[in-house]
């Protein structure tokens, strides 16, 4: 019983990772435009509206038996950070360490607003993951899992 539950825990974190990455790739393919104004509006909409909505939905299914789930809350900001490093490597043709430094420089620009955004996403994820029912093992996720484990 515990091994199956652990399998669902690991599957949740991996699945939520793939859902967010799939969301980013699908949205870039779906909203392909040559209009600069539209591209900026879409990028802002995806980052500041769709990403928090997706975070809120994913956090409702968290399985960590605490009142909040810091692991799930950290996934999306961490994916964005790693994606920025990979993007810097691909665009500039530099090594990981140099891309890491460049990404940190970009996040520190404009009075560290990039870092504040990533920290804000993490804090939003923590708030969205808050659940008394999950602490007791009575959340939506645990009710769904109980149908598979019995």
What can you tell me about this protein's structure?
The chain is built from 6 helices and no strands. The chain is an all-alpha fold. The model has no long low-confidence stretch (mean pLDDT 87). Helix 1 (2-30) packs across helix 3 (70-92) and helix 2 packs across helix 4. It has helices at residues 2-30, 36-60, 70-92, 96-129, 132-136, 140-149. 84% of the residues lie in helices and 0% in strands.
Question: Summed up, what is this model?
Answer:
The chain is mainly α and 150 residues long. The chain contains 6 helices and no strands. Helix 1 (2-30) crosses helix 3 (70-92), helix 2 packs across helix 4 and helix 3 packs antiparallel against helix 4.
